[in-house]
Amino acid sequence: MKKMCKILWEDLQEQKRLETDNMTSVKLPFFGRKERIFLPQIKNKKHFKLSFNTSKFRASKDHLPLRVIQITRKRPEWRTEEEVKFVQSCLQEIESYQSYSLRLQFLLAKVIRFEWFERGRVILKKGHCSISFYFIYFGSVALTDDEDGSSIFTALYPVVLQKGAKFGEDSLLKGTRRVATVVCMEDTKLFVVDKDDFFAHKLDEELQEELCCRYNFIKGVNFFAKWSKRSIVTITNSCKMEKFHYGQVITKDITNSDSIILISKGTCEILRLVDLTACLSYHKWVHQQLMYLSKISPCLTRKTGAVGRKRFEDFLRKSFPVQVLTNLKARDLKCNMSQGGQNVNRHPTAARAKRINQKLEKQQIGGRFR
Ligand SMILES: Nc1ncnc2c1ncn2[C@@H]1O[C@@H]2COP(=O)(O)O[C@H]2[C@H]1O
Question: Which residues form a coiled coil (predicted)?
Fold first, then answer.
């Protein structure tokens, strides 16, 4: 609101100035500062109309809700659970933060605070004691070996950490000194976790426990059996835990993914679409199955009058267990039902699809014996 008033006031001042300069005699398409308030074609003074340039008020990429800043200014014990959850949801923008378990994310959101540094500002110095660690919400920082960080803007290939990264955690956990100087490459928004809060809220224990669990799990996977301890520790520190609920698609196309997925708990199905239209043995097999089907229920082929392809598709649909192809079936069902003029949810859940499917199958069976 303040911003809006300020812009209006500035532009009204501009209008007055232009009016005194006999602006009406000059054809000026813009009124005031053109990027702020736009005045459509001034022809008649009576039709002066102020209109807002909405792009000026659109949330920018680095936008952080004011409420988050207000909450993180409070002492950890004064933050309510709802506030902490709100901060946690906003911090999902930060990739390195996402790598923690939900429990740790919550604990971090309880103690985290916001800081903003301008370009060129040294955040921490090499050799100093570690008192906090940082998440980059927006901007970038560079690492250097010299204590004052002066070489950063002249170095050819500085190590740069971008939005989403974190730094300073290792020395805080190990109680060692800083191994590098960190300088802002641009105006940078950071979330900071202080050592005192970190240990007071037993985040170190939580973190160690989580890392230990991850390490043991990764070590137990056959694929990593021959990997060195150091490599496994590196993976442990860089991997991220994610939870998926029943029926949720983990990834649509794993071949395009740049990560590998390890299942620590539960099961998932991997569906592969294979084009068998040119495969003779497959057609032979289908033919055999259809022959068999027509033997055990001859009315099916005679009564439906369906063409081979339709019968084949029906057969395929029924030949897989319901839970295996729930999603495909749901899609198929949606299509079938909308053709029949029935009203179906746009995204039926797996359970619902299963129920509808069973109902349909029952109807079909009933139909066959009528
Ligand atoms: N090569 C690197 N790549 C990424 N981060 C680094 C690298 N070297 C140092 N850091 C980070 O920079 C931080 C400097 O302070 P710390 O030693 O506390 O922790 C360090 C790491 O988090």
Answer: none
Q: Is the pLDDT of residue 204 over 70?
A: yes
Q: Rounded to an integer, what is the distance from CA 197 to the centroid of its chain?
A: 28
Ligand 1 atom closest to 130 (CA): 18
Q: What is the CA(63)–ligand 1 centre distance, in A?
A: 26
pLDDT tens figures, 347-358: 444 565 566 556
Whether 171 lines ligand 1, by a CB cut-off of 6 Å, is: yes
Model confidence at 36, in pLDDT bands (50, 70, 90)?
A: very low
Please tell me the distance between residue 59's alpha carbon and the centre of ligand 1 in angstroms: 32
168 alpha carbon – ligand 1 mean position (Å): 6
218 in Cβ contact with 262 (< 8 Å): yes
Closest C-alpha to ligand 1, atom 3: 159
* Residue 213 CB coordination number (10 Å): 14
What's the rounded Cα separation, in Å, for the pair 361 and 366? 8
User: What atom in ligand 1 is closest to the CA of residue 177?
Assistant: 17
- Nearest protein Cα to ligand 1, atom 11: 167
Q: What is the CA radius of gyration of the chain?
A: 32
Q: 201 is written with which tokens?
A: 């809220």
161-178 burial by CB neighbour count: b if 16+ within 10 A, else e? bebeebbbbebbbeeeeb
Look at ligand 1, atom 2, and give the residue with the nearest C-alpha.
159
* Distance in Å, CA 119 to ligand 1 centroid: 19
What tens digit of pLDDT does each residue of 263-318 get? Answer: 988 999 888 877 787 888 888 888 887 777 777 665 555 544 455 666 666 666 55
Asked whether the ipTM of the predicted complex exceeds the cut of 0.95, the reply is yes
Residues in the chain: 370
Q: In degrees rounded to 5, what are phi and psi of residue 336?
A: -60, -45
